[in-house]
Amino acid sequence: MTTEDAPICSAKGCRAPAVWVLAWNNPKLHTPERRKTWLACEEHREHLSQFLGIRGFLKDVVALREWNDSAADG
Ligand SMILES: [Zn+2]
Fold first, then answer.
1. Which of 24, 49, 50, 73 is most exposed, with the fewest beta carbons within 10 Å of its own?
2. 13 Cβ neighbours under 8 A, 6+ residues apart
3. Which residues make up the environment of ion ligand 1, defined by Cβ < 5 Å?
């Protein structure tokens, strides 16, 4: 069993495996179609969502598995 390349939560200091993808966009920096992504574990999804949400940056929260599936579909 390997977790070497498992995606890790983006929360500061957190080493937990990511379960969620938070897709966001800062209209001051990014064109509207652009999506930046943060990864979140179960514990930090709420925290990171709120951080982006109150700034109006948060676009989407998707389960990592679904995100990878849709990315593979192109
Ligand atoms: Zn975390």
1. 73
2. none
3. 9, 11, 14, 16, 41, 44
Q: What is the pLDDT of residues 2-59, one digit of tens each?
A: 555 789 999 999 999 999 999 999 999 999 999 999 999 999 999 999 999 999 999 9
Q: How far is the CA of 33 from the centre of ligand 1 (A)?
A: 27
Q: What is the pTM of this model?
A: 0.85
Integer Cα distance of 71 and 66 in angstroms: 8
* Ligand 1 centroid – CA 55 distance (Å): 20
pLDDT for the residue numbered 6: 84
> 33 in helix, strand or coil?
coil
Round to whole Å and give the CA distance between 67 and 26.
20
Distance from residue 72's CA to the centre of ligand 1 (Å): 25
Amino acid at 32: P
